[in-house]
Amino acid sequence: MAMRLVKGNEAVVIGALYAGCDAYFGYPITPASEIAQLAAEYFPRLGRVFLQAECETASVNMVYGAAAAGTLAMTASSGPGISLMQEGISYLAGAELPCVIVNIMRGGPGLGNIGPEQSDYQQAVKGGGHGCYRNLVLAPGSVQEMCDFTRLAFDLAFKYRNPAFVIADGVLGQMMEPIALPPGELPRPDCRAWATQATAETRHNLLTSIYLDHDDLEAHNHHLQAKYAQMAADARHEEFLTTDADLILVAYGICSRLARTAVEHARDRGLKLGLFRPQTLFPFPAKALQNAARGRRLLVCELSCGQLRDDLLLQLGPELAATTPLHLLNRMGGNLLTVAAIVAKAAELLNA
Predict the structure, then answer these.
(1) Secondary structure (3-state) at 308
(2) pTM of the predicted model, to two decimals?
(3) Which CATH number does 238-351 carry?
(4) What distance in Å separates the CA atoms of residue 316 and residue 295, rounded to the nearest whole number?
């Protein structure tokens, strides 16, 4: 099996190429800049398109145009850049165009700083732009998954004709680990039924997100909501030592790695901790969370103001949310949680 030592950001580019990505449009921003840099290096070598746009707004609209032609297209950025893309992402969702958008999250709001955060959770998971739409959202927890989930994001984006996000924090983007290269490219999606490819076969295809008749737009929204409900079939998660746990940690991204180590350290001290890691944030593995949480306490570990914690209240459902103790341990501003802090908080809750 071919192995390679790479940064998380480089793994994104590798995963995209193994997905068959045809075109990258983007603008550099720390801590995501290596994605654009390496796409500029690798894509032309393989006969793919790389174009550095004049800004993030231009790049996402280039993605729109390429996606409309059935091209496998992507972009990547960080907080401020993703904010500039929101209108284009709403257009992509409204026109049901598949693409992949990678967000290597940094501190915010505003310009913030270049430290790692998870404060773009709501922006990605709840849509971010205008209108009633959703993005597919994958949350890798390792450099290997930075590669694999980017590849998977293309597969899901074309399965559902929908924008797919890969969101990771600045630590995962910058850290280096060995990865196993994917076994090969994904099968090429057949887009002739909907794409506009300047052929006689696709001449009558129409892609738009504007419906001036109110009833037509309402019907389109009902169609979209039904599609989003179908995405639940592709929800993914990972559990670690949850079967006998008295307290379950819930975390994603770099926090899930810290939480897993905290579970191991706590077990050495006789504290029965487990870990629930959502790998897709939309669709969220709600049923799996409900099964794991029943009769237990939860401690959410995240690098934001509690955005994941707030969403868990919805994912648990009214009955479980009312009866499940749900606690928060968080840092912001580019600061990381520590294993020691997680274990100490867990001990405090279990011994209270």
Answers:
(1) helix
(2) 0.97
(3) 3.40.50.920
(4) 12
Q: What residues does each domain of the chain span?
A: 3-233, 238-351
Task: Give the pair of three-digit tokens for residue 193.
Answer: 């039924």
Residues facing 75 on adjacent strands: 101
- Rounded distance, CA 61 to CA 63, Å? 5
* C-alpha dihedral sign at 75, 76, 79, 80: negative
C-alpha 252/C-alpha 315 separation (Å) is 15
Note whether 74 and 89 are within 8 A (CB). Answer: no
Q: Give the contacts of 339 (CB within 8 A, at least 6 positions apart).
A: 258, 261, 262, 265
Distance CA 323, CA 221 (A): 34
Q: How confident is the model at residue 3 (pLDDT cuts 50, 70, 90)?
A: confident
CB 67 within 8 A of CB 209: no
Determine the 3-state secondary structure of 176 from DSSP: strand
What are the tens digits of pLDDT across the range 39-58?
999 999 999 999 999 999 99
DSSP assigned state of 1 = -
